[in-house]
Amino acid sequence: MRGRKFAVFVLAVFMIAGLLQGCAQKTQEEVSIPLTPVEVCNVVKGGIQSTYTVSGQIKPSKEVTVYAMAAGKAERVLKEIGDEVQKDEVLFSLDKKDLIRQIEQLDIKLKTDKTNYEMAVLALEQAKGSAQEQQLMEMEAALKQAEIAYNNAKDNYEKNKVLYEAGALSEKDMNNLKDALSNAEINYNRLKDSYNLLKEKILSESVQSAQLRAEQAVAAIEATEIQRKQAQDALEDSDVKAPISGIIAFKNVEVGALVSPQAPAYTIVDMDNVVVETTVTERVINSIAKGQDVIVKIDALGGKTFKGTVDALSPSATGNSVGYPLKVTIPNENHEIKPGMFAEISIVIEQKDDVLLVPIETVLTEDGKNYVYVLEGDIAKKREITTGLKDEKNYEIVNGLKEGERVILKGQSFIVDGEKVQVVGGNN
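^ that's the sequence the OP posted. Answer follows.
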């Protein structure tokens, strides 16, 4: 009996000891502090770009409004909104019947005008060959002979006058020479006056009238030809053609409707290239160049990016704007980009190669200073750094880090300087 009680006592002691030991282990586990898990990455060398971002609305590279050259009724309408057209392709046609009839009438009138001209020329030739014209020719010949006789008498008188003054010629002979000169002069002047009177009479009565009729006939031909050309041009303009290749964006013409030259008929846009017109600030204007490549992101297309080119860059701000006008051209052969969409343009304004880089997530800011946690063994050390350029992923490190050092990428917001940490990911 006593042996049984002793055995029970010993068993109870072991059970109590076991319970006490279990409680002690549990208490020890509750007071131990687990290490903060972190991910790390290495400081590396590479290239980085600083970009400047602006936004703007997409526009077609060309947009042309088409007008009819004259008023008329639309006879045919060949193109609808969304249709592609080529340059000089017919968009719509106006009724041509009145113009065709007008040209036919002008052709008849032109033939009549030419006939009248031929008759006027014939009448002019007949007037020039009349009896009065023959009489004028005979008188012109007599006038020339009288002029020769007068000039001879004048020369003879002047020569003998010297002899007379020298006493080598008698006064009688000198008087005879003087009378001959006077008679020759009177005859020449009489014939000249008669010739002029007859010429004026002929021109006023026959030749002049015929000449006037011929000139009037020429003027009539020229006027009719001008009218016909205008009508022919109007006939050709009745087929209204596309001035550029592109896509129909607006249509305001229906078959049978009256078309006015003051109202827009069509609008055509060229979407093979699209443009964004925006402005940039004075801070970056000197870092951008014409012909520079840019990246264009369009949210309406799911954030898809496209390559663009700086096509124009103004050297001065315009109007009241504080920005400098910038034009970016974007190839759009598939017409995926539509006018009216908004685009975000990223322009590289500075680029560096072979510099120290760390991910943006590693850099924290406190009191206006940047710092990172550098892993030294399993201890996180807080270190102030100087940053440079920044892109979408990385910071340039100007001072404070060396290539190959490990910095904490994730978990750094939950630790303090000098804390022991547990690396669970990244570059161990």
